[in-house]
Amino acid sequence: MSRLDLGDRTAALETAVRAAEGRIEPDLLDDARAVATRARERGGLSAEHTVVALAGATGSGKSSVLNAVAGVAVAQPGVRRPTTSHPMAAVWGPGADPLLDWLEVGRRHQVGAPSSDETPASPRRRTPVGDNSGLVLLDLPDHDSIVTEHRMRAERLVQRADLLVWVVDPQKYADAALHEGFLRPLAGRAEVVVVALNQADRLTPDETSAMLADLKRLVAQDGLEGARVLAVSAKTGQGMDELRGLLAKAAARREAATARLAADERAVAQKIVDRCGTPPPSRQGNQAKGDLVAALEAAAGVPTVVDAVRASARRDARAATGWPLTRWVGRLRKDPLRRLGLRTADREHRAPSGRDDLVRTSLPTARPAVRSAAASAVRRYVEEVTRGAADPWVLAARSRGQAGIDKLPDALDQAVATTRVEASRRPMWWSLVNTVQWTLIAVVVAGLLWLLGLFGFAYLQLPPPPTPVLTLPTWSGEGIVFPGAPESGGGDGLGVDPFRIPWPTLMVLGGLALGLLLALVCRVFGTLGARRRATGARRRLRQSVGVVADELVRTPVGDELARLASCRTAATVAAS
């Protein structure tokens, strides 16, 4: 017997039944409730008494066995069938009345307190246990009675008895009604079942041995391997001492009631565990979650938004750091984010009251297409996370998951629309580069004006004002000639004059070259920054889509899976 307390086992079984409501066939749940109810009711009654039921078919000799065990004529055997229509109790010791009331046994005989109508059952009258033993021995109606009411009484007491002694006879010990209708449903409860082959006095020793071996085989096939099987004869007393010893030991230990109830609860709890199916691996759920969010991202148009963020960031970077004279070309192309209605200013314009639920995108995704893609994603997710579960749980989880499919298109669109996809602030280096670019433009303009002034002096044939010249180092055959060094020359023709360029010309050409070079370098850095912005936007969009997936899919399905896990865990505890 398991060390688990019977009260804890009963509570676990009741938890499993509550969790399985509507998911497991009602008949099984009704059986589980009945077992739990019996456990609580029996637990509130006398623990000092052990209820032993003598059950069997018509003519098996239950009443004779009862008299032989009691040592007095408690029951009255007869030739008319069925003999026993109402159960009878032989009670050793006081205090069993509440228990017998619960059993609904009205006919009671106190063993050890002789009455005027009591007669000895045999010359070998024996009372196996003392007055305070706590044994309650029941003689049940025949389980194969043609009277339905009699059979129902027998079945009810078979369920409530602490220990079952099945009395069989050589003619009917292999009866299918007995094995299929009574012994097989008791599979796994061998410790509370005794099978007594009565009328052994009619058999030879060899026949008795062969019949006991066959009976043990049949009992083992019924799932009761290890159940005690013995041959008895109520007429001659053969085997009765062994049977009395078993009953006396069960009464003395006072554990049969707990053992029977625990066995009943284990059996029905194991059936519930089987109905739950096998739990899926934990990694499978994590993978399924990632696949679901990825599929909903695609359905919501997140890749399109991320591409738009990247392109818009590049456009913004070029507009801030590009060559000022060509920036207007980039402005001719419409902002990709504005085209999708995802610019912050556009959202605030569409929902000035701060109502985010009014914000929508302009993504070119048709609503039916989104719904179809979302439905496929939800179906795949449910299939993954419920793999191994029984069909009723799978169907319930699928129903919970599909309940939110109609809400997914709007919810996904709103999630994208309300997610901040732009950078919170412009990079500081953009402003610095912009200042440098306009400074270079100012230098170019100043140089052009200077050259224009010099051209005017030359055109008017006026003496030109002095123009500063920048002298640059040059290369000669003798090495580098630096500005200010004496000019080299000679007959070999290798003399080289230093390179001189007027400052106005240098301002124009240098300003243009540096501006273009700076624009090219900033374009590279702008592209890298655009990638970082796109990565950040994808992360935030994934979080937003994940919230929608949790709210409309994962949480409802998760509730069902949690209910399944609760049922499986509680039933496993009760079945341990």
Describe this structure in words.
The protein is an alpha/beta fold. Helix 10 (282-300) runs antiparallel to helix 15. The radius of gyration is 48 Å and the shape is rod-shaped. Helix 7 links the parallel strand 6 (193-197) and strand 7 (228-231). The chain has helices at residues 6-20, 26-43, 62-70, 97-103, 148-160, 176-183, 205-221, 240-253, 256-276, 282-300, 302-321, 327-331, 336-339, 344-350, 367-385, 391-402, 408-417, 428-459, 503-575; strands spanning 50-56, 88-92, 107-111, 135-139, 163-168, 193-197, 228-231, 469-472, 474-476, 479-481, 499-502. A 7-stranded mixed β-sheet has the order 3-2-4-1-5-6-7, with helices on both faces. A two-stranded antiparallel ribbon has the order 8-11. Strands 9-10 form a two-stranded antiparallel ribbon. The model is unreliable at 113-132 and 488-494 (pLDDT under 50). The chain has 19 helices and 11 strands. Residues 52-176 form the G domain. Keywords: Membrane, Transmembrane, Transmembrane helix. Residues 111-133 are annotated as: Disordered. The chain crosses the membrane at residues 435-460, 506-530. Pfam families: MMR_HSR1 (PF01926).
